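User: hey, got a sec? need Nucleoside ABC transporter membrane protein folded
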Amino acid sequence: MNNSEEKNNRFLGAIKYAAKSLAFPLFAIFISFFVAVFFVMWAKGYGITEYFTALTDLIGTIITGSYGSTSQALETLTYITPLIFTGVASAVAFKCGIFNIGTEGQFTLGMLAAAVVGQIPGLSPIVHVPLIILSGIIAGGLWGAIPGFLKAKFGINEVINCIMLNYIAMYVVNFVIMRTPAGIHSKAQTPIIQDSAKLFRFSSSSRANVGIIIAVICAIFVFWLLWKTTKGYEIRAVGINPHASEYGGINIARNTIFAMLISGAIAGLGGATHLAGTVYNTTDLLSFVGYGLDGIAVALLAKSNPIGCIPSAILFGTLNSSSRILQINSIPKEIVYLIQSVVIVFVATDYIVDYFKEKKRKKGAILNG
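Assistant: Yep! Here you go:
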């Protein structure tokens, strides 16, 4: 076989792999919309023969509500951007076999760090913006490393730790706002950050900002890290088979901590850019901001591929952005959550099927051996 034929075979193999990877997520999206249309028919009084009319109404309303004008399209970017960050953050942990449900707390602390650092007066934007970004990375990274360390050194389940740390992060934010000089107690919020700390916005009438560019660069960088570096190979190897990895000389504990550190840092970066580019301050939290939890769904739909998190985030961000317009058009905004839930259920089913296939394969290998 010559080099040309070998390259063609590799190219065809890559296309087949990509098509196989996309098949189930696309099927999940198709089923979610198929189910959602019935609720649209019920809400708007469509007859059973008007299914496709209801489908057109649903999809048209979502597209119009999210991309009907330039200002709406730019506003939709503010929903998409944080989901790329939290989706990529979750994907890194998943690749190492860790379920980082703590991206919510890591994102929240990234926002808090940016809110505090953003108040420093007298700095040049050239210094202040990188300082904001760095603060989010450090805050999220350290918060993510805690459950990673506890799992690596003591075998404590990371899911339980992450859930508790999410609540601790929320109450840390509330404490800083209500009990320290960094917050305005009477307004239950932090002051607006300095102009030198704000990210560049694409339009004066929109909140869309360069955070989306940072998010895409982050996704590309993480893809390169996971698939083109030795450290990335080790992370993926631990996620696929930790025992075989350990036998091959890979330090499981070190890679577990590193994966959670990177995952948390990305989520914290997302929180910092969201604050510096979109909201400019943070308020007393009565519940989670939600981007971290949605990011898990983004990563699941993307099959833990950092690049795949971009279109996945676009889907979820578009749905979230259109919820208000759906309500105005007599379509319950809960349709958005229904679509997202069905997608998650089907994607989770795919993971379960893969798990039992792998288990059956290992059992067969043992019997044959």
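Quick note: Residues 138 and 265 are 6 Å apart (CA to CA). Let me know if you need anything else on Nucleoside ABC transporter membrane protein.
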